Amino acid sequence: MKLSFLKTNSVIGPVKPFECKLSEVKKLKLCKNVCVDSALDQLVTKIDNYHKTIKIKPSKSVAESVLNIFYNKEIGLGDKQLVLKYQKQFLSQISYFVDKDEQIQFCILGLPHKMPNSLLTIEKEAGGTEVAMLLRFKFILEQINLVYPKGAVINFFVENKIFSYLADLSIEETDKYVLSVQKLINKLGLEKKIILKDLLKCEKLFPTFTTTYLKNVEYYKSHDLEDVQKARLNFFFTTNDVSISEKLSLKVFDPELDLDKTEPIVKYYKISFWEKTLPLAIQYLAYNKTRKDLGVMAKIAPYNIKLTVAPKPGSIGIRLINSRTDLLPYYGYLVFTGETYEVKYLVDIAAKSQNYLAIADKNDKIWYLVKK
């Protein structure tokens, strides 16, 4: 029973393979901390400097210039042809706001929680990866301002209350994560540009949501099984492993593990965690299908241009961090190599901890790491 990672797809956000061999990792421990009082400020400066290297040329019209931002390989995610296919739709949506001399409205879904798997991260609140995401949004908004002074707003529909139970987390735990993101938004002065909205509250506007959802649960029990399998793989590698030891996790989530040659307890947890992913994947897909069937986003965010981390028709794929990594901010730590940066799993850092320095503030909060 070997389970492989998947590339970015239209079903669920990206998860990448481990860089290291889990069998060679002895301990899930981050590298030595270097305390810097202005760690966050330094991080903001480093990311802002990175964004200054991105060059985007304006087009003939305001709408084309705005859409052109997402054609840049540093910003856009997925096949450019998918965006081109729906170009008329996107231009029409942008023009709707421009013609009314209003701020352009974008929407995106996300911010469920930090992944509760100790191989990925042990953080519970927003940190350097979320700073990188927010500054990426800031950069996009600044580029829009250059061609359209009215600017734009990003409506960020938060999924934590919906998906917390899929990760065996309480709403209280995930609320703390969302609150920590809001604090960062405020600290970065983006509170009028990035608006967090509770997606769960929006469900109540649709009387048939629950009945439609239950029908879709039944649908995925026998249809679109390939999509179910893709979602299962993501859920497996992000499984909440708080119930088992660090040593056991390194074996259970080892994609190279041969079950026939391992001890019974490892086999038990690997099979148990895998079987658990089936109802999780079905519920996840059923929820998303219900949202689509009822036209939820069109009603709660009319005319908004939809951004997504799982490229699909009618939405614009976006890199939340940069072109070096498709990993979402909830999956790891921000690591700099020279002037560029990426998201790395804790286990991959721990495997070569001597090669990294963690930059922390006076409260020992790690904001980013530097590869020596």
Structure summarized in a few sentences:
The chain has 372 residues and is α/β, with parallel strands linked by helices. It is built from 14 helices and ten strands.
Helix content: 40-55%
Report the biggest beta sheet as strand number plus sense, adding barrel if it closes: 5 strands, mixed
Q: Low-confidence runs (pLDDT<50, min 5 residues)?
A: none
End-to-end gap: 37 Å
Name the shape in a single word: globular
- Summing up helix and strand content along with how strands pair, one would put the structural category as alpha/beta
Strand order of the largest sheet: 1-9-10-7-8
Strand composition percent: 5-15%
Give the radius of gyration.
21 Å
- Helix and strand element order: EHHHHEHEHHEHHHHHHEEEEHEE
Average the pLDDT over all residues and give the rounded result: 93
How many individual helices? Answer: 14
Query: Got a strand count?
Result: 10
List keywords for this structure.
single chain, 372 residues, alpha/beta, five-stranded mixed β-sheet, 43% helix, globular
How would you describe this protein?
The protein is an alpha/beta fold and 372 residues long. The model has no long low-confidence stretch (mean pLDDT 93). Helix 2 packs across helix 4, helix 2 packs antiparallel against helix 5 and helix 10 crosses helix 12. Helices cover 43% and strands 13% of the residues.
Mind sketching the topology for me?
Layout: E1 33-35, H1 39-51, H2 62-69, H3 80-85, H4 87-99, E2 104-110, H5 128-147, E3 152-158, H6 160-163, H7 171-187, E4 194-198, H8 199-203, H9 209-220, H10 225-237, H11 246-252, H12 264-293, H13 296-300, E5 305-308, E6 316-317, E7 333-337, E8 340-344, H14 346-351, E9 356-360, E10 366-371
Parallel strand pairs: 1-9, 2-3, 2-5, 3-4, 5-6, 7-10
Antiparallel strand pairs: 7-8, 9-10
Helix pairs in contact: 1-5, 2-4, 2-5, 9-12, 10-12
